[in-house]
Write a structure and sequence with these properties.
This protein is α+β, with helices and mostly antiparallel strands. Helix content is 25%, strand content 30%. Strand 13 (238-241) and strand 14 form a beta hairpin.
Amino acid sequence: MTAQHNKNFPEFYITAPQPCPYLPGRHERKLFTHLTVDRSQALIDNLLKGGFRRSQSIAYTPHCEGCSACVSVRVPVDEFSPGRSMRRITNRNRDLVARPVPAIATSEHYALFRHYIDSRHGDGGMADMTVLDFSVMIEESPIQTFLIEYRMRPPSHLERDHPLGQLKAVALCDMLSDGISMVYSFFDAAEDWRSLGTYMILESIERTRRQGLPYLYLGYWVDGSRKMAYKARFQPQEHLTADGWRAAGDI
């Protein structure tokens, strides 16, 4: 019994300091552990619900000295109601069809990802990702993971023979016991007018609600970071504190 407990209990490590990608002049460190298929699924689920994020087979959380700017955020989907601007974004994308598919990387996915990175994040940490790196990001997961593809809706007279339209966006998601966690998303950066990043979150909120799950997990919001400011738009939301998950307005 002791051996089984030791096998399932994760070993944690701390990374060396690196420049913070969100707040200039600061450094970040991460606390991380390896996720393997022989770990208890309940353990992995609790880590991810408790503020850790998953990247392939690694679960990590910020562990920065003297800084607590990174805050885990989730949306209680039954309480969420989109405002006028968000409803307009949904209407702009009525010509898209959202479809969950297995987490299997394709050349079509990689082409869209490459275009997105080159257009938006050419100097970021993903700029040098090869097609093999991309496949690992999509496919390596010890838990239930899936993709949501957002494609153009074909004309009604072609829908039966051509069910798959042009790919416009992709969201990589983890299924948790109490919700869906959005791991990473990318989209056609040439169509800014669609606000596809916002639209994917709105669609995922509704997807989570339809599945009878209470939360959509959005990862970390970083106070003072322009890159993360968009997450604050999805209200009401809950933040993970030292006392557990609490409504953002009560903190």
